[in-house]
Design goal:
459 residues, six-stranded mixed β-sheet, 46% helix, six-stranded parallel β-sheet, 16 helices, alpha/beta
Length: 459
Amino acid sequence: MQTLLLWLFYISTFYAFIPGMISRIFGYRVFRKGTGRTDFALTFDDGPDPHYTPLLLDLLKRYGAKATFFVVGSHAEQNPEVIKRMHDEGHLIGIHNYVHKTNWLMRPATVKQQIQRTDDIIYSITGERSTYYRPPWGIVNLFDFSKRRQVQIVLWSAMFGDWKEKLGADRLTEKLLSKLNPGEVMLLHDCGTTLGADPNAPEHMLIALEQMLEEAQRRGLRSIRVDEMIKNMQNSPIYRLSFGKRLVVRLWLVWEQIFQMMFQVKAISPSDPFLHYRLRKYQGEPVQLEDGELLKKGDKVIELHIDNRQLFELGVRSRSSAQLAIRLIRHMEKDMPMLAERIAGDVDLAEAKALYGVSMINRGPEKFGFMVLDLPKGWFARSTKFYLSILLSVIHPAGSARLKERSDVLVPKMMLMSISHLLDQMNQQRPQKPVKPRERLREEDLSLEAELPGATAVH
């Protein structure tokens, strides 16, 4: 019996678990996130629902938003008028199996029947076939990859747990706004009748979604259909990279997400996250800053990080090193005043002595007041150069040829600027540190003694 269970475990792991992990982490043969500067994708699973889906369509129509609906075939069969309305109003209709059952528990032939039956229902209502497929719970099996010629598997980049009522509209709104970025593929649910969902959960989703759509309008962002997002991505220079380079980029971006969560790295502008920062202690050799202040080990610094996804996209879209440098400078010109304003409003950040960063793309930082220094020789400099060389070969317009051509100048550099210098440039002032109650009381005592010589305050 133990041997049988062990074999079942091996088979299920090979059949579904490993393919699922590969598709989620590396995006192998699935679409899960787009590119672009102003577009994101709203996707809805499990519908249509006779009550909530029409309300959702009303909401999308008010804001001029287009969405993608991955419908359960049996629900579509029961609500053909809702499916027709989706189609007539310009939304994309995808397949979510005939019944909401995981592919992990179905044979390949059964999954194929589920897809075909749902597609036939959609065709009978709209007159169009669907080639977009999202497996329930996003679980793909080994044979789903072989369906690439028949359907495009679509997963997601952001999921919110909106199928549970206890999340509430306010918390869901916060989660939606935190992921309101270009390229995101957002997963929501317009039906609460599937296993594990709460029947009235879509009511909270509609409230939160309206708040997010209002914010999207303010930021100049719009929701588009998944097929349009895929088409835009295929026309971009990124799509023309080799599989090996795309794999390097994927690992790089996954590592960035892990790093940001572990070290609480924050974006200066969440609506356009180019420059990120975190507060940390300086660990290098003492450095005399340009304004005369000495930066030494243990002093607080604000460590700057350029968003890797935006850096990658800027790199592959730039025709030359000069164009890449100009685009980076424009982003810095927008973000540096915002950073100064944030420091001026945050006592903890204002305690830092300097801005600090390490990069191989170090043309032009002097324009903003940075000192550019060589990294001290050692393992950190060597490992940083190796790591950044690999990445630069992917993102640089000239690729690895640039590294061979001028490897002598493509070395990591340390960039420093005193916080005082930054605030002076941006006409900002350090915030006053709040006086603690006991300190305030002592100040009052001294004032009283000055007014009444010889008087003693009793505490």
